[in-house]
Amino acid sequence: MRHVSYDGAYGCYIEAALEVIADKWKGVILYHLLDEPKRFNELKRAFPELSHRILTRQLRELENDGVISRKIYPEIPPKVEYSLTNLGRLLKPTLLSLEAWGVKYVEMTRHAKTCPTDNKAE
């Protein structure tokens, strides 16, 4: 977490949550970890356009924020798995809600592009 503390002022809890998950790739990384642990290369294959360096940075930040854990198995070559912590698992309903909202958003914006006079949100 970037801030040492939050003062409870209006919106600061949203700010705290968004600091943890709002980077471009963090939400989708967390989404891919919802069901089971993943190895680094599994995550890398899921996002071919994501560089090794950026994926590493995002995983480290999520680990530092306490929402994922990194387990290293003592074998050669080393096997490393990433999984959600208890705190990270609390994000599941939020991530699934964001996914559902994203589906609606894509459908509605696609519809708005084909029917520009009917682009109001329901």
Helix content, binned percent: 40-55%
Query: Uncertain regions: pLDDT < 50 for 5+ in a row?
Result: none
CATH level 1 class label: Mainly Alpha
Q: Which percent range describes the beta-strand content?
A: 5-15%
Radius of gyration: 18 Å
Report the CATH architecture: Orthogonal Bundle
Determine the CATH superfamily. Winged helix-like DNA-binding domain superfamily/Winged helix DNA-binding domain
Overall tally of domains: 1
The major sheet is characterized as: 3 strands, antiparallel
Count of DSSP H/I helices: 6
Distance between the termini: 36 Å
Question: Averaging pLDDT over every residue, what do you get?
Answer: 87
How does the helix and strand content classify structurally? mainly alpha
Report the count of strand segments: 3
Order of helices and strands: HHEHHEEHH
**What gross morphology would you assign?**
globular
Named CATH topology: Arc Repressor Mutant, subunit A
**Main β-sheet, spatial strand arrangement:** 1-3-2
